[in-house]
Write a structure and sequence with these properties.
This protein has 152 residues and is α+β, with helices and mostly antiparallel strands. The chain is 28% helix and 39% strand.
């Protein structure tokens, strides 16, 4: 069973170019998984909390593309990728490419687990180029996940 689960999780990943570093961040939200999942898939919601008002587009289906403009370091930083798995409201997996991944594909997996009417969100970001950029992504994701809570 674990071999099958691992094979499914690796499907669509470009492992030949992915880096060796990973991070994991867990947050709990006082909202149902459906609502938390929707915050990650509705372009207006994504724009409100993740890009903080900058442009966001998302074609949320396996193989669909997304594009985000995130402001940081006094400039717009484009982020883009493709959805690998859309399993509402349990999991969302997508590639993640930006200047901060050195232009290489990395993969973000979001897992939404219901716990007594609330949601435990586990974000795993695999394939980051090195530990320094992994630490920067952990700091960034932590900040964004903290920003999400009050918006739910």
């Amino acid at each position: 069973m674990n071999a099958l689960k691992n094979a499914v999780q690796m499907q669509g990943r470009n492992v030949q170019v992915m880096g060796p570093s990973s991070i994991r961040v867990v947050r709990n939200y006082d909202a149902k998984p459906e609502k938390v999942f929707r915050a990650w898939t509705d372009p207006a919601s994504i724009s409100a909390w993740l890009t903080k008002g900058e442009y966001a587009s998302a074609d949320v289906r396996p193989g669909g593309l997304f594009y985000l403009e995130m402001r940081g370091m006094e400039k717009i930083n484009p982020h883009y990728g493709r959805y690998l798995r859309v399993d509402a409201p349990r999991a969302l997996e997508f590639t993640w490419v930006s200047e901060w991944t050195q232009g290489k594909e990395s993969v973000v997996l979001l897992e939404f687990a219901e716990r007594d009417g609330k949601t435990e969100l586990t974000l795993t970001h695999d394939g980051l180029p090195n530990e320094e950029l992994a630490a920067a992504h952990e700091q960034g994701w932590t900040s964004f996940l903290d920003e999400l809570g009050p918006r739910l």
